[in-house]
Amino acid sequence: MASISRSGSAHWEGGGKDGTGHVSTQSGVLKEAPYGFNARFGDGRGTNPEELIAAAHAGCFTMALAFQLAGANLTATRMDTSAKVGMDQVEGGWKIARVALTLKAKVPGCDDATFQKLAATAKANCPVSKVLNAEITLEAVLES
């Protein structure tokens, strides 16, 4: 059985509200990207775990859909996906409760029923969808 491993890291100094940190990825695409309380719970500068999860989910789902389309002998000329992560305050802290995926795609030769079926399969089976304990919705629009 094949196995893949990827890594990321975080550094933090200070308290929860007044501290600051940075995150990095193995690939170096993110290198010491700043994050902190204001970037996570307000509109402060820097990144936060939820937007990184949103970007990862959008990317994972879109790539999964490209493979689903290829399996149906279809190729998208364009797919644009956004993911909006929603958190709710629960007893003991916060929980990622939902992710809303929104997709607009152009796939020559594909009818909407096929597109919706393949998009739903990609949503259910992309690795990021599988790891999230959240409600995941999908609005998929096939453009002509």
Automatic annotation (TrEMBL):
Task: Please give one Gene Ontology molecular function term for this protein.
Answer: peroxidase activity
InterPro entries assigned? OsmC/Ohr_fam, OsmC_Ohr_Peroxiredoxin, Peroxiredoxin_OsmC
EC assignment: the record states 1.11.1.29
**Keyword Oxidoreductase attributed:** yes
Q: Which EC class is the enzyme in?
A: oxidoreductase
Domain of life of the organism encoding this protein: Bacteria
Keywords from the UniProt entry: Oxidoreductase, Peroxidase
**Cross-referenced Pfam families:** OsmC (PF02566)
Protein's UniProt name: OsmC family protein
